[in-house]
C-alpha cells in the first residue's frame, strides 16, 4: 500500500511498478485487489491505460481444483506447436523460458469492479518476465456469462440446448487455460545490451515458420507493447485465447476438471464460441469446414453451424498454426510479419461487413420477426452489490436485482 500511496501522490510510474511487483508475490490472499491504471485495451494506440479498481473474495475450494493445472503447466505447454518434445530446454523449445515457473492462479468472487467492463480474469503480463506471474479468475463473472448465453442468438436451434448445457464448464476451462497457459507462456528473445543475448547468437533458434534462423529480436528496453504498438494487446489476447481453444480436448486437462468418461469428453469438445474475429475468420479460411456461416440478406440474419466431427481433426490443427504464428512473432519481435498477417486477418470487409451489420441490428424492432437467429432476450446484467459501514461498525452487504432498475440503483448508492 505504501507504493500505491507514493504513486498516487507523485505519479511516479516506478512506484506503481513496485506496487505491482509486491502484488505478484502476495499469493492467494483472502481478500484480493487490483488498483491503478492497469490495462491499455481501450486506447487505440495501446499505450494509455484505463483506471481500474477491483476488490474480491477468494474461493479456496474452487482454487484448489486448478492446482493440477498449475503443477502440470510445463507439461501442457509442451503440447503446443512451438515446443520441442525431447529436445532443448527440457522439451519446451527455444521460445519458452529455460526454467518455467507456473504463475499463481486464484479463483475469486468479485465484490466490486470499477472499470468500463468486468473481465473474466486478469493478470499482469507486462511484469511477468522480471517478477513472475499471477492470475485471477472471476468466478461470478463467468456464471453471469454462462447464464446469459448470448451466443445462442446465432447458433442453429438444434444446437442451442447443447450450448446451454455445456457453456458454463467450457467458459471455466477456457478461461483458466487462457490466463495460466496462454498469458503464462512465452519468452522474448533479446539483446539486452550490445553483444549480450539471452540466446546463442552464433547458433540462433530456427524460426519454425520459415525453417531459417531467426532474424529479429528485442533490443535493450524494448517490450512487446513498444514494439507491436497498437497491435500489441489484440495480438496477445488472440494468442492466449487460441491457446485456450487448442488445449481443452486433451484428456488429461479435462480430467483435472472432473471429466473422465467418454460422454463427458464428447460434451466438453463442443466449441463454445469464437469470440475474437481474427480466430473466427482464420477458422473460416483454414478450418476446412469446421463451421459455416449462413447469411440471409433478405431477412438480415446470420446463423453459425458447427461440424463437430471436424472439431479435433480440422479445427484444432488450424488453431495450432494460428497460435504458432502469433507466439513466434511475439517471441522474436517480428512486427513486420505480424502486421502483414494480422491487419488483413482482422479486416471486417466484404461479406464479413454484411454479417456484422446483421449481428449489430439483431434485436431491433424491425428485426423482431420469426427468425430464430435474432436475439429477443434481455441478456445478462452485471449488477454489483455494495457494502456500507453502519454506525455500530457492522458491515451491510446490499444486493440488487438483476434488472435495469437494480443496475441504476447499484450505481447511485455507490456514490462514485
Automatic annotation (TrEMBL):
One of its GO terms (cellular component) is cytoplasm. Keywords: Hydrolase, Metal-binding. GO terms for molecular function: dipeptidyl-peptidase activity; metal ion binding. The keyword Hydrolase applies. The keyword Zinc-finger does not apply. InterPro entries: Peptidase_M49. It holds the Pfam family Peptidase_M49. This is Peptidase family M49-domain-containing protein. It comes from Bombardia bombarda.
Amino acid at each position: 500500500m505504501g507504493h500505491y500511496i507514493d504513486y498516487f501522490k507523485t505519479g511516479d510510474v516506478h512506484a506503481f511498478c513496485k506496487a505491482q511487483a509486491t502484488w505478484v508475490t502476495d499469493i492467494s490472499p483472502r481478500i484480493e485487489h487490483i488498483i491503478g491504471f492497469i490495462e491499455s485495451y481501450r486506447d487505440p494506440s495501446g499505450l494509455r491505460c484505463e483506471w481500474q479498481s477491483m476488490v474480491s473474495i477468494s474461493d479456496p475450494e474452487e482454487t484448489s481444483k486448478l492446482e493440477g493445472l498449475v503443477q502440470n503447466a510445463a507439461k501442457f505447454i509442451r503440447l503446443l506447436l512451438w515446443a520441442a518434445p525431447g529436445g532443448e530446454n527440457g522439451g519446451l523449445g527455444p521460445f519458452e523460458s529455460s526454467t518455467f515457473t507456473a504463475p499463481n492462479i486464484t479463483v475469486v468472487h468479485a465484490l466490486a469492479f470499477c472499470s468500463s467492463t468486468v473481465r473474466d480474469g486478469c493478470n499482469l503480463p507486462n511484469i511477468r518476465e522480471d517478477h513472475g506471474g499471477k492470475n485471477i479468475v472471476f468466478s461470478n463473472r463467468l456464471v453471469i456469462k454462462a447464464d446469459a448465453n448470448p451466443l445462442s442468438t446465432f447458433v442453429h436451434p438444434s444446437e442451442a440446448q447443447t450450448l446451454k448445457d455445456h457453456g458454463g464448464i467450457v467458459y471455466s476451462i477456457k478461461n483458466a487455460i487462457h490466463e495460466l497457459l496462454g498469458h503464462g507462456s512465452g519468452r522474448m528473445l533479446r539483446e539486452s545490451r550490445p553483444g549480450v543475448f539471452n540466446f546463442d547468437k552464433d547458433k540462433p533458434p530456427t524460426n519454425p515458420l520459415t525453417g531459417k534462423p531467426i532474424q529479429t529480436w528485442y533490443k535493450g528496453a524494448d517490450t512487446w507493447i513498444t514494439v507491436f504498438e497498437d497491435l500489441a494487446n489484440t495480438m496477445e489476447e488472440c494468442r492466449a485465447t487460441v491457446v485456450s481453444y487448442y488445449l481443452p480436448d486433451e484428456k488429461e486437462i479435462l480430467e483435472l476438471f472432473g471429466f473422465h468418461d467418454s460422454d463427458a469428453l464428447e460434451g466438453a469438445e463442443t466449441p463454445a464460441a469464437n469470440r475474437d474475429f481474427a480466430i473466427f475468420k482464420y477458422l473460416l479460411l483454414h478450418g476446412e469446414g469446421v463451421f459455416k456461416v449462413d447469411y440471409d440478406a433478405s431477412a438480415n440474419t446470420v446463423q453459425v453451424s458447427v461440424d463437430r466431427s471436424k472439431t479435433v481433426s480440422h479445427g484444432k490443427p488450424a488453431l495450432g498454426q494460428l497460435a504458432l504464428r502469433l507466439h513466434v512473432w511475439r517471441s522474436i519481435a517480428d512486427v513486420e510479419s505480424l502486421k502483414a498477417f494480422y491487419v488483413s486477418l482482422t479486416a471486417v470487409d466484404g461479406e464479413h461487413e454484411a454479417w456484422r451489420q446483421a449481428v449489430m441490428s439483431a434485436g431491433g424492432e424491425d428485426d423482431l420477426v420469426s427468425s430464430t437467429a435474432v436475439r429477443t432476450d434481455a441478456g445478462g446484467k452485471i449488477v454489483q452489490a455494495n457494502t456500507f459501514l453502519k454506525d455500530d461498525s457492522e458491515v451491510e452487504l446490499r444486493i440488487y436485482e438483476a434488472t435495469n432498475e437494480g443496475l441504476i440503483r447499484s450505481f447511485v448508492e455507490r456514490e462514485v
